[in-house]
Design a protein that fits this description.
Distance between the termini: 29 Å
Strand order of the largest sheet: 5-2-1-8-9-10
Strand content: 15-25%
CATH architecture of the largest domain: 3-Layer(aba) Sandwich
Structural class: alpha/beta
CATH topology of the largest domain: Rossmann fold
CATH class of the largest domain: Alpha Beta
Number of strands: 16
Helix content: 25-40%
Radius of gyration: 22 Å
Oligomer: single chain
């Protein structure tokens, strides 16, 4: 049995089911170390612009500890974040075979890497970088590459989440044999089951929202903030309406909250458009019903490390439209099959993508459901086990470049 320590900032709704699955595997003895417990309570989410409390269990079903930390419990920049006082002692007491660290933005993550190095325990690193956020400032970019090149030499094995993340590591000359895919996935069983259950109440939900029957629905479910570019979707939708038949005019639903909501609502009211709805923040357990309700899902962001909401909605068997700056685009979107990819900010291209998705929603939805079935937590567990086995066979705990 492999004794594995996992270090991550806080309990995360997407990760909890995966950690339970790993913990249930008889070949892995998992202990999770969190830097903060803020997500277990009501907290102010800056993006949503409101207080959020998740309605699903985040720490049940696996061993976990909260590190003893000084400083802020949430990410507030490099100079205002927690510093752990007991990382070394936790690793010594656990006698772990490997340390798995999520990301490198937190000081506690760096502490875990350095402490593991001192104890000669191999380190697995899983991050979300995809190359989209490279700085235009040459000095900053050079400094970043210098720091990461130094840091990556302290890692035994990397766990890319998808194609772009794999390419990011390769750009730092990480050898292919030091890369083991652990795909960025969601709880497919949960989302597909909940979407199936929602079908039974679909028409009730439609009526409660005042939506006429037989009219297609375009859904946006994310924060209403600048980086997500909801205004682009609204503009593209308005272009689409100029070409749509009045009897089949689609609805546009915005699920989410954020600082752009007032301006979006004003733009809709000024145009006297009655087919746009702003439904506010909805918790995790409520989302599958909206995924089931829609015909097309859209994520027009200017930057997404991955876009796990795409995984979620694909489990409901829906057509997806994404910008070309979404991290999952190479792995989950087959352009012209289960969705469309458009250049970020190109309103005309987005409008045409919406038109295609509406016309091909049935076949695209079937393709989405088929594709997401091969991108699951089961592949994650197998990837982690392969990584641990690779370390065990290699014997050498450090990479050579």
């Amino acid at each position: 049995m492999f004794r594995l320590a996992y270090f991550v900032s806080h309990p995360i709704q997407y990760q909890a089911p995966l950690l339970r699955l790993i913990d249930s595997d008889p070949e892995i003895d998992l202990t999770v170390f969190f830097y903060s417990d803020f997500s277990l309570h009501s907290y102010k989410d800056k993006g949503f612009g409101r207080t959020v409390k998740w309605d699903i269990p985040l720490t049940e079903g696996y061993k976990h500890e909260f590190l003893k930390c000084w400083g802020s419990c949430q990410w507030r920049g490099w100079l205002r974040q927690p510093i752990a006082t007991n990382v070394m002692s936790a690793l010594e007491q656990g006698n772990f075979d490997a340390v798995w660290v999520h990301g490198w933005s937190w000081l506690c993550s760096l502490q875990a890497i350095f402490s593991a190095n001192r104890l000669q325990v191999p380190v697995l690193l899983r991050g979300e970088a995809n190359g989209f956020s490279e700085s235009s400032n040459l000095f900053k970019e050079k400094a970043k590459r210098t720091i990461l090149s130094w840091l990556f030499k302290k890692i035994s094995l990397f766990l890319p989440i998808g194609t772009l993340n794999y390419q990011f590591y390769r750009s730092y000359n990480i050898k292919p044999e030091s890369l083991q895919l652990v795909p960025y996935a969601v709880d497919n069983d949960y989302f597909s089951t909940q979407a199936d259950l929602a079908k039974q109440k679909r028409e009730n939900l439609r009526r409660s929202l005042g939506l006429e029957p037989n009219r297609p629905i375009i859904l946006y479910a994310s924060k209403l903030i600048g980086r997500k570019r909801p205004q682009d979707l609204l503009n593209a939708y308005q272009h689409l309406l100029c070409r749509a038949d009045s009897d089949t005019k689609p609805y546009l639903l915005f699920v989410g909250d954020g600082d752009m909501k007032p301006s979006l609502e004003l733009a809709v009211s000024s145009s006297n458009e009655d087919s746009v709805r702003f439904l506010g923040f909805r918790n995790q357990s409520e989302l599958p019903a909206f995924y089931d309700l829609c015909d097309v899902f859209v994520l027009p962001s200017s930057f997404e490390p991955w876009g796990l909401v795409i995984n979620e909605v694909m489990n409901a068997g829906k057509a997806v439209v994404v910008s070309d700056k979404i991290g999952c685009l190479h792995d989950l979107i087959e352009d012209g099959v289960n969705g469309r990819i458009f250049p970020v900010g190109d309103i005309s291209a987005l409008s045409k993508a919406l038109d295609w998705a509406l016309q091909n929603s049935a076949s695209a939805g079937v393709a989405s459901l088929s594709k997401i079935g091969e991108w699951s937590y089961q592949e994650d567990v197998q990837g982690i086990k392969k990584a641990l086995l690779s370390l065990s066979k290699a014997g050498d705990k450090w990479n050579e470049y």
